[in-house]
Structure formats: C-alpha cells, structure tokens
C-alpha cells in the first residue's frame, strides 16, 4: 500500500513499498492511481520522475549487519541494488543508510548513498529523509527493501 509522507507544502509525496509488486509494477500502480484520482493532472503529458530508495540499517535487533551478509560472494545490499538497477522505470536509485560500514560498502560497488539520521524509526522515515536531502523533485518514490536481493525489477 502506498503511503503519503507528511509535507508542509501542498505537494504530494508517495512512498511505495516495492516488495508488494516489484519495482516496475509499484511505479505503474501509483501512476495509475494518481491519474485516476487526479493527484497528478499532468501525468498523461509527461513522464513521471521516479526514484528508488533502498533503506538499510546495520543495527537490526534480530540480525545485526544483515545488509552486509554475503550471498554467493556479494553483500545482500549489493544484490538488491543490482536488481533495482534493472528496473527501467527508475530514474535514480539511492541507498539510505545510517551506518558508515554499509555506506562504504555501497560506494564501493557504485551506489549513491545518502546518510540518514539514527532517529528514523523505520524505512519509510528513512526514505522521506533521503528524499528531502536529495534536493531534486521526484513524482514517485519507491521504497525498495534492502533485504530483498531477488526483488523483481
């Protein structure tokens, strides 16, 4: 289910969990809903700008360091990022991280990394903070779970 992130302006920011349908399907679903409910009246005229944000964190209580666990020789976060890169609907992919170990690993394989606050309670908050720090306008934000190395692009 798409969720609306709070904003002080009249802009609508939707953060979509990619795990529901896969990245491309999530983007299409939000675009369809936005057009149907006239949330983005210009949608039929222009291509939406879409960013995929992969929130990850090192300090999980159940599995500390999970993004760095190797799967067939590569960290899980790298496998997730590589699958997300295959999604043609995404204009940009960013890893949202609050730990320098994971950020360094991600930069090592070429990912854009935005450092987020330790205060973020969940991935959606991490995505929203990242969107604010990007300083660019996107119509759709896709929340791609960092622990989904086999996500359907």
TrEMBL record:
SUPFAM superfamilies: Nucleotide-diphospho-sugar transferases. InterPro entries: Cytidylyl_trans, Nucleotide-diphossugar_trans. GO terms for molecular function: nucleotidyltransferase activity. The chain crosses the membrane at residues 14-35. Signal peptide: none annotated. Keywords: Membrane, Nucleotidyltransferase, Transferase, Transmembrane, Transmembrane helix. This is (wild Malaysian banana) hypothetical protein. It comes from Musa acuminata subsp. malaccensis. The lineage of its organism: Eukaryota, Viridiplantae, Streptophyta, Embryophyta, Tracheophyta.
């Amino acid at each position: 289910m798409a969720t609306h992130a709070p904003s002080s302006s009249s802009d609508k920011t939707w953060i979509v969990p990619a795990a529901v349908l896969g990245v491309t399907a999530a983007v299409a679903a939000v675009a369809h809903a936005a057009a149907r409910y006239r949330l983005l009246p210009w949608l039929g005229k222009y291509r939406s700008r879409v960013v995929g944000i992969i929130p990850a964190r090192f300090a999980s209580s159940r599995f500390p360091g999970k993004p760095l666990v190797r799967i067939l020789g590569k960290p899980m976060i790298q496998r997730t990022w590589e699958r997300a890169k295959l999604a043609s609907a995404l204009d940009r992919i960013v890893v949202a991280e609050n730990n320098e170990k994971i950020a360094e690993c991600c930069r090592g394989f070429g990912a854009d990394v935005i450092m987020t606050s330790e205060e973020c309670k969940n991935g959606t908050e991490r995505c929203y903070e990242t969107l604010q720090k990007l300083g660019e306008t996107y119509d759709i934000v896709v929340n791609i779970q960092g622990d989904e190395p086999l996500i359907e692009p």
